[in-house]
Design goal:
The complex is a heterodimer. Chain A is an alpha+beta fold. In chain A, 35% of the residues lie in helices and 28% in strands. In chain A, helix 6 packs across helix 7, helix 14 packs antiparallel against helix 15 and helix 15 runs antiparallel to helix 16. The longest helix of chain A is centred in the last third of the chain and has 31 residues. By secondary structure, chain B is an alpha+beta fold. In chain B, strand 4 and strand 5 form a beta hairpin. In chain B, helix 2 runs antiparallel to helix 3. The chains are: A alpha+beta, B alpha+beta. Chains A and B meet through helix 1, helix 7 and strand 16 of A and helix 2, strand 2 and strand 6 of B.
Chain lengths: 623, 171
């Protein structure tokens, strides 16, 4: 069984997507690009090129390089008079007034060209997914008539793809935003692509999306904006130096690249610099192009283009007998919808609606088509609703801090274990205090429950290994257990209310943690440092006890002094982090000296590595 | 006790279970469903791990290419300046030439060798035509007659196609 994809078969570019892990994913083509030019070329050697490769050779092979085939798909030859003049290849009349494209001595139907693009998208998708793609949902403009839809379907058939359904581009965009799930809404989809402009009004209700009206301009798009910038740059340069850069293919290519980049930049910044050093040369030497374009200036130069978007928006509202106030949502589609002046116009004409554009406007249609494909295949039917832990849970450890075992937003069911140990010698029992919250200090969090684990075999602190396991099941019920590996003693508690918090409580606890983060981090650092100092002092003390008189007298004196100092710092809950750290490191240095000295003593040095290097000292208070 | 609604409900459930046959079959169906769900989830997890390994690698390559692409134009511009800087003995030109060489070797060390030679055959997987000239006996069809900007990379990992002028048939 093959996979199903969603395809946005565009006039200038096409995009393919599939559902992965419940989310639409855009599939990069074999060249690594997320969009594929809808261009097909037939070379003199009989080779067929699709996409970027076809575009790269179009200059040397204009008669056999077909772009914008979508403008001819499913149409009568008599209808396409104007379009014929805009393309470099020959468009002729076929049988029954059908449109045919003349390539050498062959005549091809436009759907055969579209099929080549579909074939490449599907082949590249198969390679990316690692599974054969056999089915697709393909999008078409809302204004496409039956013949154009049928021809698009035929293109799929020619490409060997089973077309699950043909859906409207604006409908796909609404699906990508999950708007099919809304009760009853009116959505305006504004789609300004590379070379075409479409506006649609959709009615959504009960899972059905209906196109109420559609309008547009088949020759308006981002390319027009680029050309304005290029012309401005070239005119300016001609005025200054008397050289027209448009006559030099190399300079023209650089101008277009710079123009497009300036346009893109001005969507995020209000001023951009264009510099093309050594753009040309004359007898007097090399010439550089340097210019600054402000957004205000760009808006002025493209004002009429933006204004051309106005008519179709007003048209769809008039056709649907609606006013701006009736529009609930606005979706932006197409790269040029990123232009601020365009967005301002849309906002103004739709009653100040903040447009949706969180999904990449170049990819939103393909994403929606992929969602539709998954729904038709039943892939999304059995999705398990996954819950997350609303707040972190953990336990109180040495120094009264919270050690988190399961972090907030972990998908549940989840299970985490960690090994802890005792804080004092011969500690017979530990108390497990189960906490919930985001703060570092245990007291700042919520206590969910507590229990004692008793019967721990007498042992120096740090030696017992107590495994604590937190388990949240699918219903949010938290089960905490503790097991002493030495005695085998276990104890556990079940807390069912761990997720029964109001959303407002959760939000408050999370925001408390945010606002106290800096203080909490400092507190945590201090407590960790004190714990480390306490542990280091304890290790030296034990070591001194074991060595007895074998310890060099001056080392012993120094060590004892440091131990007293360390104990004082811990007992006073000192907040002098630098002092705590320096004392700890002095103790650690002494420790090295002490272990190196005695060669004659029975205990092998290895046994001194306290087992707690991989365990966390927990403040399991004694009873 | 019996007045406790929860208890009553429990009893009712028990009696349902006692009916046997159908409810066992229900359980079997549920179990099969649960097993199916579990296998799907385990498979999803496995696929997710594979996918993330792939995506981390792809993300790394994409970011490297994105950053290198931002620098290409500066190197192009330096290269263009050399067209105006004498062919040798000119200290300034020689200095810039060595800067360009170093930059190009950085690209090469990252796997994006500079390419584009006059006389090569045109290949759309690495070359972009920006203009054409008529072919002659000396310069056959499809041959590159000028490299306007060099390309970087290989057909498999192309950072940028070389912009070229190609000889074509006729005028």
């Amino acid at each position: 069984m093959g996979r199903a994809v969603g395809i946005d078969l565009g006039t200038t570019n096409s995009v393919v997507a599939f559902m992965e892990g419940g989310q639409p994913t855009i599939i990069p083509n074999a060249e690594g690009d997320r969009t594929t030019p809808s261009v097909v070329a037939f070379t003199k050697d009989g080779e067929r090129l699709v996409g970027q490769l076809a575009r790269r050779q179009s200059v040397m092979n204009p008669k056999s390089t077909v772009s914008s085939a979508k403008r001819f798909v499913g149409r009568r030859f008599a209808e396409v008079g104007d379009e014929r003049d805009t393309v470099s290849y020959d468009v002729i009349a076929g049988p029954d007034d059908a449109v045919r494209i003349q390539i050498g001595d062959k005549s091809l139907a436009p759907e055969e060209i579209s099929a080549q693009v579909l074939r490449k998208l599907v082949d590249d998708a198969s390679k990316f997914i690692g599974e054969k793609v056999t089915e697709a949902v393909i999008t078409v403009p809302a204004y496409f008539n039956d013949a154009q839809r049928q021809a698009t379907k035929d293109a799929g058939k020619i490409a060997g793809v089973d077309v699950l359904r043909i859906i409207n581009e604006p409908t796909a965009a609404a699906l990508a935003y999950g708007m099919d799930k809304t009760e009853s809404e009116t959505i305006l989809v504004f789609d300004l692509g590379g070379g075409t402009f479409d506006v649609s009004l959709l009615d959504v209700g009960d899972g059905v999306i209906e196109v109420r009206a559609t309008a547009g301009d088949t020759h308006l798009g981002g390319d027009d904006f680029d050309r304005r910038v290029v012309d401005w740059l070239a005119d300016d340069f001609k005025n200054n130096y008397g050289i027209d850069l448009r006559g030099d293919p190399q300079a023209l290519q650089r101008l277009y690249e710079a123009g497009e980049k300036a346009k893109t930049d001005l969507s995020t910044v209000t001023q951009t610099k264009i510099s093309l050093p050594f753009v040309t040369a004359d007898a007097s030497g090399p010439k550089h192009l340097e210019a600054t374009l402000t957004r205000a200036e760009f808006d002025k130069k493209t004002h009429d283009l933006v204004e051309r978007c106005k008519g179709p928006i007003e048209q769809v509202m008039a056709d649907a007998k609606l006013t701006a106030n009736d529009i609930d949502e606005v979706i932006l589609v197409g790269g040029s919808s990123r232009i601020p002046a365009v967005q301002a116009l849309v906002r103004r004409l739709t009653g100040g609606n903040e447009p949706n554009m969180t999904v990449n406007p170049d990819e939103v249609v393909a994403a929606g088509a992929a969602i539709q494909a998954a729904v038709l295949k039943g892939d999304v039917k059995d999705v398990l609703l996954l819950d997350v832990a609303p707040l972190s849970v953990g336990l109180e450890t040495m120094g009264s801090v919270m050690t988190k075992l399961i972090e907030r937003n972990t998908t549940i069911p989840a299970r985490r274990s960690e090994t802890f140990t005792t804080a004092v010698d011969d500690q017979p029992a530990v108390e497990v205090v189960v906490l919930q919250g985001e703060r570092e200090a245990a007291a700042d969090n919520r206590v969910l429950g507590r229990f004692h684990l008793e019967g721990i075999r007498p042992a120096p602190r740090g030696e017992p290994q107590i495994e604590v396991t937190f388990d949240i099941d699918a219903n949010g019920i938290l089960n905490v257990s503790a097991k002493d590996s030495g005695s085998g003693a276990t104890q556990q508690i079940t807390i069912s209310e761990s997720t029964n918090l109001d959303q407002s409580d959760i939000d408050r606890m999370v925001s408390d943690a945010e606002s106290n983060r800096a203080d909490d981090v400092r507190l945590r650092e201090l407590i960790d440092a004190r714990n480390e100092l306490d542990g280091a002092g304890y290790q030296i003390e034990r070591r001194l006890g074991e060595l007895g008189d074998d310890a060099a007298a001056h080392d012993r004196a120094r060590a004892e002094l440091l131990i007293v100092e360390a104990r004082q710092l811990v007992e006073d809950r000192s907040e002098d982090l630098a002092k705590i750290k320096s004392t700890t490191s002095e103790l650690q240095q002494i420790a090295h000296g002490l272990t190196a000295e005695p060669a004659t003593v029975g205990a092998p040095p290895g046994s001194q590595d306290h087992p707690g290097d991989h365990v966390i000292d927990a403040d399991f208070t004694t009873d | 006790m019996t007045s406790d609604p929860a208890e009553t409900e429990m009893l009712a459930d028990d009696s349902n279970d006692a009916e046997g046959g159908t409810s066992n079959a229900d359980v079997a169906v549920q179990l099969a469903h649960a097993e199916d769900q579990w296998r799907r989830t385990a498979a999803d997890l496995d696929n997710l791990q594979k996918r993330f390994r792939r995506e981390v690698e792809r993300g790394r390559v994409d970011e490297r290419e994105r950053i290198l692409s931002l620098w290409i134009q500066s190197i192009d511009d330096l290269g263009r300046s050399l067209d105006h800087a004498g062919t040798g003995g000119d200290a300034m030109g020689d200095g810039i030439r060595s800067i360009v060489d170093r930059a190009v070797s950085v690209f090469a060390s990252l796997g994006y060798e500079r390419f584009g030679g006059v006389g090569d055959q045109f290949d759309p997987s690495i070359h972009e035509v920006i203009s054409t000239v008529p072919a002659t006996e000396a310069v056959p069809v499809n041959q590159i007659v000028a490299v306007v900007t060099p390309g970087y990379g290989t057909a498999e990992h192309l950072l940028r196609a070389a912009s070229v002028v190609v000889a074509v048939e006729g005028s």
